[in-house]
Each structure stands twice: as C-alpha cells, then as structure tokens.
C-alpha cells in the first residue's frame, strides 16, 4: 500500500540556517575580509571588462562578445553567494528564507552551466581563428553567436529547472541547519526526510554530461589548434598563435580543476575528506574564477589591456582637469 502523501506546505521550513564553514569558525574574520576583497576585485574587474568591450567599437570580434557575457555571468555567480557568505563570517547572520535559498541555488548552478558553455564557445572561436582564419567572419557571424548564446542559456535552464523542482519539493521535517556557506544542492538535499538520491544522481549525471561533453569538445578544439600551430614554419607565428590561447587556457584551468574536484569530493569524499575542506573548496570554486578571469584577460589580451589603460588615463585626466 502507498503511504499518505507528504504535506508539503506543513513540512516546508520558513527558514534555513547556513553554518558557514564547519570547523573554521576561528578564521571567519579573515575569511570575511578575503572574500570582501575578492568580491570587490570581481565586481570592478568584470564591470571594467564589460564597459571597455561595450564602449569600444573596435572590439566587435566574437571572442570579445563571449568575454563580455562571461564577465556578466561571473558577476551573477559571485553576487549570488559572496554577500551572504560575508554576512555569515562577519556578523553571524546565517538565516536564509526557503525561497531565497532555492533562488540562490538556481542562479549558482545555472551560472556554472552557462560558464562551461561559454568556455566551449570561446574554444571554438580560437579554433576557427587559428585553423580557418580566412573564413572567420563568415563562420562566426552575429547570428551564429546569438544562436550559440541562446543554446547555452537554454541548456542551463533545462538542466537546472528539474533539479530545483526535485529539491524544493522534498519534505524538510527535521533539521534546517545547512552545513555549508551557501545553499549548495547536495547540502540542502541531505536535510530532507525523504530519500534525496534521485536529485543527487540527477545532479551528478547532468553535471558530468554537460562538463564532460564540453571538455571533450574543448580538448578536440585544442588538439586541432596545436596541430595547426606546430605546422607553421615560423617560430614567431607559432608563439603568437599560442599566446592568443594562453589566457583562455588559464581561465579553463581555474574553472574546471576546482569545479570538478568540488563535485566529486562532495559525492565520493564523504567520510574521508574533512567537511570544512569540502565546503571551502566549493566556496573558492565560485569566487576565484570570477576574481581572476578579468585579471587574466586584462593582462593577456593586448587589445583589452590597451583600451583599459586608455580609459583609466582618460578618466584620470578628466578628474584632474575638473579638480583644477
């Protein structure tokens, strides 16, 4: 016989309580200061990248369009978690409403799915630019770019909507204390009175399929890029071609390495990896790429570096002139 259905309205908690990072309470002040500094850099850096690309009519190549979208996604990702983390670490304000918790969960995981798709799009851009330079503008037209961006967004929404629905409809009749510093899916699902395994399997399989397919295509793109580069007769041309991909490779390493480590440690490392290590890894995975991406692209991409310098000099000149 089937048991009585769960009364979702009665078993839905009004509030969850985020622990922060269990076991590192003595370091909360330093964590709050560090996260605040990283968040400030992420906001300023990514906003500057977006401003420069949008204002400069010469930066209209597909790569810069994808980079502008990536900067916006980084701002959304960091803004979804860092303010609440800083509040927990600095003032101990750990409560978060049920709706706010699942809104945060949705934006965090959707943003990560969008970001991996953008990295794939940027890898394909580099492949076309290096392997098919004469057809670059005819292949990566504005219509193709728009289609790629819409596809990436739809994929993220399609993945996250069922996951959010499954977790938000679990019965939470026990503890409402989340052993994490944001509403991470697995940490919240473990509090349910029902079996959270379906949503956990969906999350693991969905993440593995999305990231696995993206990484496979990115690897294939770079294998073809390397074959084309090392086929060039000039060492200077080889170095120039590799240099254009350096910033992208650095950003991919920042994103995929801690990201995959965070996912599989949370799934397989329970009982062997300390909880504070799991939580700290998940936190840094969301914050570090958003902080370092604009720095890497600002330093490695000549056009952006020059435009940022020109913009800062212009602003300084205007401020000096107004002051005098």
From TrEMBL:
Main localization (coarse): membrane
Record domain G-protein coupled receptors family 1 profile: where: 45-297
PROSITE patterns: G_PROTEIN_RECEP_F1_1, G_PROTEIN_RECEP_F1_2
Membrane topology per record: Multi-pass membrane protein
A GO molecular function held by the record: G protein-coupled receptor activity
Keywords noted in UniProt: Cell membrane, G-protein coupled receptor, Membrane, Olfaction, Receptor, Sensory transduction, Transducer, Transmembrane, Transmembrane helix
Keyword Cell membrane annotated: yes
InterPro entries, per database record: GPCR_Rhodpsn (IPR000276), GPCR_Rhodpsn_7TM (IPR017452), Olfact_rcpt (IPR000725), OR51/52/56-like (IPR050402)
Entry's Gene Ontology cellular component terms: plasma membrane
Subcellular location: Cell membrane; Membrane
Entry similarity comment: Belongs to the G-protein coupled receptor 1 family.
Protein name as catalogued: Olfactory receptor
Organism of derivation: Sciurus vulgaris
Phylogenetic lineage: Eukaryota, Metazoa, Chordata, Craniata, Vertebrata
